[in-house]
Amino acid sequence: MAMKYSRQRQVIKDFLMTRKDHPTADTIYMNVRQEYPNISLGTVYRNLSLLADLGEIRRLQVGDGTDHFDADTSRHYHCVCTECGSVIDLEMDSIDHITEIAGQCFDGMIQDHVTYFHGICGNCYKNL
Questions:
Q1: Using H for helix, E for strand and C for coil, what is the string for the chain?
Q2: For the chain, what percent of residues have pLDDT higher than 70?
Q3: pLDDT interval class at 6 (50, 70, 90)
Q4: Mind listing the pLDDT tens digit for each residue in 13-41?
Q5: Which residues, other chains included, contact 49 with Cβ-Cβ below 8 Å and sequence gap of 6+?
């Protein structure tokens, strides 16, 4: 079933595609409402959930209790800064082989994995 076009949904997705910092729904809302002042936070949340459910964006849960969103749906890894909380893409070779290794230790079938690295981002590290 085809989904009806939504200008608000498209603006949210377009905004997210310009970002590499994996913003939260609140950050997206604050920026999108500059173009659409009448948009509600609920509309932003609903559209982010829908886009994530459709696989058009990724929802990242990095352990800070807040969902972050990523327009890059390809398999890649992230580092979470333990100082400022930023979520940063890591440009690195795939470590998908850990799924096979985990499968050797599991009485079942491993289908996927999610890996987050934790450390101090470059900006915070400079200020230590």
A1: CCCCCCHHHHHHHHHHHCCCCCCEHHHHHHHHCCCCCCCCHHHHHHHHHHHHHCCCCEEEECCCCCEEEECCCCCCEEEEECCCCCEEEECCCCCCHHHHHHHHCCCCCCCCCCCEEEECCHHHHHCC
A2: 98
A3: confident
A4: 999 999 999 999 999 999 999 989 999 99
A5: 59
